[in-house]
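Listing S7. Sequence submitted for prediction.
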Amino acid sequence: MPVINVALIGSEKFARSIAKRGDVRDIESYVFKEGSGEKSRIISFLRPLKHPESIRPLLSVLNVAKAGIIEISKIDAALGEILVSFSCAGIQNGMVIINPEEGTWIDEEQISVLLSQAMLPWQIYKSMPEPNIVRSDIFDMFNEREILDEQLILPIDQHFVVQGIGLVGIGYVQSGIVKKHDSIEALPLSEKGIVRSLQVMDDDVNNAFSGDRVGLAIRNMREEALEKGCIIVHSDSNVLEAHSVSKFELINAPFQKKELKKDDIVHVSTDLQFVVGRITQILNNNLEVKWDNPLYVRAKQDNKIVIVQLDATPMRIIGTANNLISV
């Protein structure tokens, strides 16, 4: 079964109670595995660090996650931004756990209203549930998950050369399936190679599916092809379109009152890309943005594309981009 990635906003204590701690970077991973072999079930809880100081780790997690858990200890501006981030990322499956700081109280009805305003149809727990209930409820959300026939999109966030193996790239499969011996292409340099072997959760596998964090050993590709911002697709795939300048309709985020202007600097978050651009034209909610680096957009545009302004207060999430076209 493919891995279920869950964005977890909460304490380290809570995270350790529901899964085993794994990698730590700007994002902590906690993995729970049940069963073995093809019948195994795996949840990867991804806990972004440094929020609210930095919003990028949160957005990276939301690019990957299919569900969310928010442990609420207090109601503040940071919570509002978190709820809006999940909403704009399209995370419709999730749960809120009310766990107030010692000596304080949180109104369940107020949380219900906030979730409704943020358009998140999530379950609310009045108190901290047992770990097995949290995991069971996550599995229930995805009991009938299908492996869809989609084209491969695999952003690479780490790479290195291993003696005896060669070039290895690591990243989350955003869409599709990658298999041993597949012919692949690394964008933006358009260098091609062959998948030599695959690892998921430290196990050698023949296939990696959407949601898996996979390590690929690659033949016939230079290390430079996997530099920052690289995305792996199947050779000669048309799954992504490169944008230098985009036009799109901006769908405003819940609670967002900020009005963008020409020459404002914005960022876009999609498929683990975080690209900066300048607004060159604006008419009502129709924007034209020139990107500093190429932005790769899915041809089908079947995912959420989040627009951010880093100096906006009190909330940096501006909204989502609808119907992007390259100009």
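Caption to Listing S7: primary sequence and predicted structure tokens for the chain studied. The radius of gyration is 20 Å. Residues 39 and 260 are 50 Å apart (CA to CA).
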